[in-house]
Amino acid sequence: MTRVQRIPAADVIAAVTDPDSFTPWSPADLGVAPQTSDSDDYSRELDAARKKSGRDESVQAGKATVEGNEVVLLIGDFDFLAGSAGRSACQLLIAAMKRAIDESLPVFASPTSGGTRMQEGTPAFVLMADVAHAVTRVRTAGLMFVVWLRHPTTGGVMATWGSLGTVTFGQPQALAGFLGPRVFEVLEGEPFPEGVQQTDNLANRGVIDGVVPLVDLRRVVSRLVDVTSRRVDDSAIAEAPLGNEPRTHGLPDASDPEGVAEPAWQNVLATRRLERPGARELMASALTQAVTLSGTGEGKRSAAISVKIGRWSGRSVVVVAQDRAAQAGGQLIDPAALQTARRGLRIAAELGLPLVTIIDTPGAELSVDAEESGLAGQIARCLAELTDLPVPTISVLLGMGCGGAAIALLPADLVIAADNSWVSPLPLEGASVIRYRTADRAPEMADQQRITAALMAADGIVDIVVPESKATQGGDPARYSTLVADVGETVARSVAALAEEGRAERLQRRHIRYGGGMG
């Protein structure tokens, strides 16, 4: 097994922050008394730890700038009694987080620890609850809490501020887990399986968002801090090519050869083409300073849903997107995918950022596992949460929109649809079997069910239709590029327009729209 290096606190601070910008907060600055003990042995250990580390405690707190944005830092120090969490360390964390709230500053936290300090026992152990509550208060205040787990992070530290970040990354191959492997082996009589308590594995399992080497950490942290600290990048908006207003319409216009109504089945065939651009291409074109989140944060992960925090033409957003390429590769929308989507919804609400959902799916996974894992319930919760989400919401129908997987991300303040996009209750072949006992009449079902963007606009389901040239039905790459650009620009204008509305007015309109007469 590769030996993983412990990264000193000073190296983390130097790598992430602007030069000479870090101002440490001593225990006295935060009103925290230094740890003392009646035990001569523990007092000697504390003195030795202070000499070895040059610090007062196992946590270093302070304030710095990252690319000019102020950030509160909470950095664990393994040189101080293995980074263990005693009463003074916990109180330092809590006081520093309170100051972050008072000053409305995001937090970057990098723990490394063996867990609760055994010399202090239960009085230190129960402070886990207080530390967890402090992190919750930071996030409830709408502040970003970024975590980077260092080697090693275990025990009560992993089970509090190490696991409660808005976004969590880890040092590659770092040990991270609840019970340290040495203690596990003593208690269980056998070694812990190799690689399980490793950040790379946790990322693959959807426990953390990924592994980031120290050399790349500043870039990731600066993006997250900047996107949430400066909600609008005026320079990016000014540089964005506005061009002409993208044409939008409801019903097809017979006077426009591009707008003549065609059989709905042509839309279905057009969106099923493998070369048609999807969410990846749209986000690559429109989204900057993006950071990708992975999984639910609770041990589930699906490539079918992508969640990103970034800027859409200069405005900070959270994007929850169905990945057509992943679905084409066999990773369909399952309960884990929708739980990942719901995490994106929660983060958007927590940070007060507009939400953009991108719908492009051939349908949800149909399997015993999906049923037993609560697929229907996850669809229901997505719908319930979207209709009541406090932030501006935009959904984009980019291509296929089959069944519950599609409608799960549909409710929004504004619904934008590419001209060839469609939404149907079931795969149309399945609907044909239900009606006619054969799949051959799927094209008829497409017409009967009013699935097209134009007809959904006429029915009040879609607000804006972004035209496509008929050439996109034949797979013209140049026309695809135009489609991606037009959809991206329409979303950008819509985000800007919704930002001008008051929250109460916007929510009232959404509640009326999806209230079914209840308002």
Written description of the protein model:
- With 519 residues, this protein is α/β, with parallel strands linked by helices.
- The chain folds into two domains: 9-229, 2-enoyl-CoA Hydratase, Chain A, domain 1, CATH 3.90.226.10; 265-475, 2-enoyl-CoA Hydratase, Chain A, domain 1 (Alpha-Beta Complex).
- 41% of the residues lie in helices and 16% in strands.
- It contains 22 helices and 16 strands.
- The chain has helices at residues 9-16, 40-53, 87-102, 122-125, 127-140, 155-158, 181-188, 199-204, 214-229, 234-239, 264-272, 279-286, 324-328, 335-351, 368-372, 375-388, 403-407, 428-436, 442-448, 453-458, 477-499, 503-513; strands at 23-25, 59-66, 69-76, 107-110, 145-149, 153-154, 167-170, 176-177, 210-211, 287-293, 305-312, 315-322, 355-361, 393-401, 414-418, 464-466.
- A seven-stranded mixed β-sheet has the order 1-2-3-4-5-7-9, with helices on both faces.
- Helix 17 (403-407) links the parallel strand 14 and strand 15 (414-418).
- The radius of gyration is 26 Å and the shape is elongated.
- It starts with 8 loop residues before the first helix and ends in a 6-residue tail after the last helix.
- Residues 238-260 have low confidence and may be disordered.
In short:
With 519 residues, the chain is an alpha/beta fold.
For this entry, give a set of tags:
single chain; alpha/beta; 2-enoyl-CoA Hydratase, Chain A, domain 1; seven-stranded mixed sheet; 41% helix
Architecture blueprint of SSEs:
Layout: H1 9-16, E1 23-25, H2 40-53, E2 59-66, E3 69-76, H3 87-102, E4 107-110, H4 122-125, H5 127-140, E5 145-149, E6 153-154, H6 155-158, E7 167-170, E8 176-177, H7 181-188, H8 199-204, E9 210-211, H9 214-229, H10 234-239, H11 264-272, H12 279-286, E10 287-293, E11 305-312, E12 315-322, H13 324-328, H14 335-351, E13 355-361, H15 368-372, H16 375-388, E14 393-401, H17 403-407, E15 414-418, H18 428-436, H19 442-448, H20 453-458, E16 464-466, H21 477-499, H22 503-513
Parallel strand pairs: 3-4, 4-5, 5-7, 6-8, 7-9, 12-13, 13-14, 14-15, 15-16
Antiparallel strand pairs: 1-2, 2-3, 10-11, 11-12
Helix pairs in contact: 3-5, 12-21, 14-16, 18-19
